[in-house]
Amino acid sequence: MRAAIVTAPGTVQIAEVDRPEPGAGELRLRLEGCGVCASNLEPWAGLEWMTYPTPPGDLGHEGWGVVDAVGAGVTGFAPGDRVAALSYRSFADYDVVPADMALRLPDSLAGHPFPGEPLGCAFNIFRRSDIRAGQTAAIIGIGFLGAVLTKLTSDAGARVIAISRRQESLELARHYGATETIVMDDHYAIIDQVKALTDGAMCERVIEAVGKQWPLDLAGELIGFGGRLVIAGYHQDGPRQVGMQNWNWKGIDVINAHERDPAVQMRGLREAIEAVASGQLDPTPLYTHRYPLDGLADALDATRDKPAGFVKALVMFA
User: Residue limits of the Enoyl reductase (ER) domain (predicted)?
Assistant: First the structure.
């Protein structure tokens, strides 16, 4: 099979490698596609703790496809079933996954891309956010996660203030239900605008979905007394400082909303499948850029550089 190998920072090679065989309790998937995650950018940039080359297909964890073979002891799946899965070497034609980390996709989603991991992640973040009707929630960073969270938060009856750098991202937020939008360009001007929009009370909920220092600082300023600050950004490129004096004075809850319990991860994936299949959520406008496997380097560069109109890249397999 073909598999992508990152051989050095900013360099990817497509190699022919042995197709993996499913072990006991595993499925082999013939992948239809795999989303590109912002968490791929640290290995792509070459952070000091990375080693190269990466294993074949490594970094790809947003795959979906068709069951190709089942290992011993697997029940509930058969070759031909179309599934979303939480696997980790899906920048390749095939991947293997424990059967309990895959969910069958309904027929209504046939032909539609389904990067299950980030969709499930959004639903888990939303649950941890404890959004309630009537609250004001600021969402900082309107990329893929921020847009889905805007939709879920708006549907829950909360007022959403969307904050992002690009005007097109703010338009996307309005499409998904944001009531107010603010350009993320001036720290103190943003604070003043949110203060005016909330009569000085600030926000009951703030979701930081960027993964950088400044948005984290901003989140601490926008949260109101006794509120909940939810960290959805992926802060894995180095240490962060936090305004503990401010956090402590306000008596806020701080939630790191990335789930690592497989059962909870699968709960989010299950909720995402149900929401998309029922029409509650249409993520189609978020899949803005598609690349073949041999275009993975371009997909990673686009995820980093965010060209005009970019929200999320998908690597698609013929």
Answer: 7-315
pTM exceeds cut of 0.90? yes
Q: How far is CA 118 from the centre of its chain?
A: 4
With cut-offs at 50, 70 and 90, classify the pLDDT of residue 139: very high
- How far apart CA 40 and CA 43 sit, in angstroms, is 6
DSSP secondary structure string for all residues of 36-74: PPGGGHHHHHT-TT--SSPPTTTT---EEEEEEEE-TT-
pLDDT over threshold 80, residue 318? no
Q: Which of 110, 188, 144, 111 is nearest to 39 (CA)?
A: 144
Is residue 36 pLDDT above 80, yes or no? yes
Is the preceding omega at residue 53 within 30 degrees of 0, hence cis? Answer: yes
Q: Which two tokens stand for residue 263?
A: 């059962």
Number of Cβ within 10 Å of residue 122's Cβ equals: 28
Query: Is residue 52 pLDDT above 90, yes or no?
Result: yes
Partner residues linked to 14 by β-bridges = 4
**Torsion (CA) 232, 236, 240, 242 in degrees, nearest 10:** 20
C-alpha to C-alpha distance for 82 and 106, rounded to whole angstroms: 8
CB atoms under 10 Å from CB of 157, counted, come to 11
CA angle 91, 92, 98 (to 5 degrees): 90
Q: Report the distance separating Cα 255 and Cα 246, nearest Å.
A: 16
- Strand, coil or helix: 136: strand
Q: Catalogue all structural domains in the chain, each as residue range(s) with its CATH number.
A: 2-104+283-316 (3.90.180.10), 119-256 (3.90.180.10)
Handedness of CA 90, 283, 125, 102 (dihedral sign): negative
Q: How far apart are CA 60 and CA 63, in angstroms?
A: 7
